[in-house]
Design brief:
Elements: E1 3-7, E2 10-14, H1 22-32, E3 35-38, H2 49-61, E4 70-76, H3 83-90, E5 95-100, H4 120-129, E6 132-135, H5 149-164, E7 170-172, H6 178-186, E8 191-195, H7 197-201, H8 225-235, E9 242-244, H9 253-256, H10 271-281, H11 288-300, E10 308-312, E11 316-317, E12 322-324, E13 327-329, E14 337-338, E15 341-346
Helix pairs in contact: 3-4
Length: 347
């Protein structure tokens, strides 16, 4: 049986939701992660340092007492975000990023930014105080084809942000296209991207296999097979500009299977095991540790975790569902096999 030990990994983009949902999501995340950057798109959104720290405590209250898990927080940017909140957030070592959601781009983004250039004075302060700008990189102009929205955001907004603020650290989250891979690969120092397990495993055909598959619906949307291959190549290349951010996003079953559907794929139950599958198939298992455990910490200026996890090539079946705030949560690969399994953690 093949065995692999790696430094305990981190997840640099995860949704845990709030309240009763945390009993499931925080438990899953804290099982194998050292740290995670928690997304702030609650209802209402986490727009102040005070709200971020209160949310962090609710997450910790739902983690096992012995868990080494450390939630790190992000501030939700709006058109009304203030310089004082940026500075106050930067003063806390528990808040490490501010998240830019273009208004209407994804789940709970209605309060997001309508005019990105109006935030330039805040970006200048973030550049000064060292707070990372985390970006959902899609335009929301209805005239733009939904499969082209990432590319248009890069061309219309991201290039200008990166050039205007040369010392601002920027993460383009959950990239989905070969265009994004090329941009990040050639960008200036201090620009990076997260990649999800589901965008490494699926392409847009998987939205329609055997009919419409609502549990494969996410935003940004899955793209072409050529884009998926570009993401796999980037993740497996040991390039420190690319690191793991699951974008694990839970929704109750009835929300996913409703007439409208909810965007989001839940992978927090098996994120690192899924990554091990990808790297194993690409014959680059020796590079999994960099992608999942080292590169993100290095980018955020944090030490590597000091303990480890052990994975074995041991297939296991994902449950059909998990309890989720008195509803069912359908996880990625529900009722199917994952070929790697976390066996233990060692301190």
């Amino acid at each position: 049986m093949e065995t692999l030990q790696i430094t305990r990994p981190d997840d640099w983009h995860i949704h845990l939701r709030d309240d009763d949902a945390l009993r499931t999501t925080a438990t899953h995340a804290s099982h194998y992660l050292g740290r995670a950057l928690i997304m702030p798109n609650l209802q209402p959104p986490v727009t102040t340092a005070e709200a971020a720290l209160a949310y962090r405590q609710r997450i910790l209250d739902n983690c096992p007492a012995a868990s080494p898990f450390t939630p790190l927080m992000a501030l939700y940017l709006t058109d009304q975000s203030s310089p004082d909140e940026i500075r106050q957030s930067a003063d806390s070592d528990k808040i490490i990023a501010a998240k830019l959601y273009p208004a209407g781009a994804t789940t709970h983004s209605q309060s997001g930014v309508k005019d990105i250039q109006r935030l330039y004075p805040l970006f200048a302060i973030m550049e000064e105080v060292g707070l990372v700008l985390s970006i959902h990189g899609e335009v929301t102009d209805p005239s733009v084809d939904i499969f082209d929205r990432e590319k248009r955001f890069i061309d219309d907004h991201l290039r200008a942000i990166v050039d205007t603020f040369p010392q601002l650290r920027v993460v383009l989250e959950h990239i989905t296209t070969a265009t994004a891979v090329d941009f990040i690969s050639s960008a200036r120092r201090g620009v990076a991207a997260t990649i999800t397990a589901h965008h490494l495993l699926l392409n847009r055909n998987d939205l329609f296999r055997g009919g419409i598959c609502p549990h494969n619906y996410c935003l940004p949307l899955l793209k072409r097979e050529a884009d998926r291959c570009a993401l796999v190549n980037a993740a497996c290349a040991a390039n420190p500009r690319f690191f793991y951010g699951s974008d694990s996003a839970p929704h109750p079953r009835q929300g996913k299977e409703s007439a409208c559907g909810c965007a989001g794929i839940y992978t927090a139950h098996a994120g690192i095991e899924l990554c091990a599958e990808i790297f194993s198939e690409a014959e680059t298992l020796d590079r999994l540790e960099g992608f999942c455990s080292h590169f993100g910490a290095d980018f955020y200026g944090l030490p590597h975790n000091t303990d480890s996890i052990t994975l074995t090539a041991s297939p296991w079946s994902v449950p059909d569902c998990y309890e989720y705030s008195h509803n069912d949560l359908i996880p990625f690969r529900a009722g199917q096999k994952v070929s790697w399994k976390i066996q233990e953690a060692s301190v």
